[in-house]
Write a structure and sequence with these properties.
single chain, alpha/beta, DNA Binding (I), subunit A, 3 domains, 5-stranded mixed beta sheet, 18 helices
């Protein structure tokens, strides 16, 4: 690596001053989200109070505004964040916590906050502020810094595949869009139990959205690992068509999340949710009508029954009881969720099974939206009474609309058997009502 490193010590008080002066960046683009639990944070404060050594903090030094040095935290984000939270340093003053510490000399641990230490434990306060932290100050190209970040974080709580992807490619438009979608739908994903709060913290939500977005952009099911890594290379994804893919992904997510309650089905599993999402996206492009409450309720019930059938077969096989003839479809599906679940071939088999279950429950819209001039003439010339079917107004040739009796958006065909004469005013106010 073409990096220059300088080794030194800095006290906690020095870090606090740098933070207050805006000279520490805890969230450079390559960093991951905070992954420490409250228990991890309390243990760190106990270690500092007891004078135990902490691992080195790695900082990337660059020149900020006014020539002041600016420090991007390469490694040590969680430690510095924890110290700032405990001390109530802005902007972490909304996350203040206490820790169980032995400060009274009697061997008993009690809860102590930073404010209580400041008021009654001046020596402990001084020792805390002057606690020395080993620092490695790094200078060099950002690409080399990212490599160092990935290398350092290969131990401890190692980076997930998406955290490594984020560190290397955080400026790529595709990843930026996926990150925005993950934030937008985080509550929905957690509510439907598709991802846990811990998984969202480890960027699993970003990875899922990246997968969905890339699949919509590619117009096909993808092999998860190879496709995601390949898509990160510059020029692979056409940024001119990316905005349209984002809109389609948002629309399909809204449709899936409004149609189904997945909490008690197999499809809350992210791999199987992907299959359901892609099927619904495909059905939307094929003009299926997916906003009928009655049909959606039947689809929900179908998912629940199918999930139960697959789960029952799995338990049955674990008890060494063979599948029966009427469990064949469950067995075919079970094969697709064991082993290589994310290959494009396996996903295609899974989607085919799911399509056979859900598509027969829904109708499609007519490919032709509007009545042709010929159909309008036939309708006009075959009506015995040329009056508006809505208000009864007498109609003239230049002042009528050929309207769908059953709305096109509800599956009504653009055929003369589903046509009626309406005045323009009634047609505008009718909407999708019959």
């Amino acid at each position: 690596m073409a990096l220059q490193m300088q080794f030194e010590q800095r006290t906690i008080n020095e870090f606090v001053l740098l933070q207050k002066h805006g000279q520490i960046n805890l969230k450079p683009g390559f960093q991951r989200m905070s992954v420490w639990r409250p228990s991890d944070r309390r243990k760190l404060i106990d270690s500092v109070v007891r004078g135990l050594p902490l691992p080195s903090v790695f900082l990337h030094c660059s020149q900020g505004r006014g020539g002041k040095p600016m420090y991007d935290v390469i490694d040590g984000k969680q430690r510095l964040e924890t110290i700032f939270m405990f001390m109530g340093v802005r902007p972490f003053d909304g996350h203040v916590f206490s820790a169980r510490l032995m400060l009274n000399g009697d061997g008993r641990a009690e809860e102590w906050s930073w404010e209580e230490i400041r008021r009654s434990q001046r020596e402990v306060q001084h020792a805390f502020l002057t606690y020395p932290i080993q620092v490695v100050e790094v200078k060099g190209d950002l690409s080399d810094v990212v490599d160092l970040f990935i290398c350092i974080n290969s131990t401890g709580k190692p980076l997930t595949s998406q955290e490594r992807r984020h560190a290397r490619y955080y400026t790529e438009p595709l990843l930026i869009q996926a990150d925005g979608l993950a934030k937008r739908f985080a509550k929905d994903l957690a509510k439907q139990q598709i991802l846990t709060a811990a998984q969202l913290t480890r960027m699993k939500g970003v990875e899922l959205m990246l997968e969905l977005l890339l699949s919509v952009h590619s117009r096909r099911l993808i092999n998860k690992k190879s496709a995601l890594d390949h898509a990160m290379k510059p020029g692979v994804v056409d940024t001119h068509t990316l905005a349209a893919a984002v809109r389609e992904t948002i629309s399909t997510l809204h449709t899936v999340l409004s149609m189904f309650d997945l909490r008690h089905t197999r499809f809350r599993n992210s791999a199987e949710f992907y299959t359901l999402f892609m099927l619904i996206w495909s059905m939307q492009t094929e003009r299926y009508i997916l906003d009928d409450p009655v049909r959606n309720k039947a689809a929900q019930r179908m998912l629940e029954l199918f999930s139960a059938g697959v789960d029952n077969l799995r338990e049955q096989l674990r008890r060494a009881k063979p599948a029966t003839r009427n469990q064949g479809l469950y067995g075919d599906y079970l094969v697709t969720v064991q082993g290589d679940t994310d290959s494009s071939a396996t996903r295609q088999r899974r989607e085919t099974i799911l399509r056979g279950l859900l598509c027969p429950l829904f109708e499609t819209r007519d490919a032709k939206r509007a009545f042709s001039l010929e159909q309008r003439r036939v309708l006009w010339n075959t009506e015995s009474s040329r009056k508006c079917s809505g208000c009864g107004k007498e109609l003239a040739w230049g002042d009528f609309d050929a309207d769908h009796v059953v709305a096109w958006s509800r599956g009504g065909r653009t055929e003369l058997g589903n046509a009626q004469l309406l005045c323009r005013r009634c047609n505008r106010s009718k909407g999708a009502r019959p």
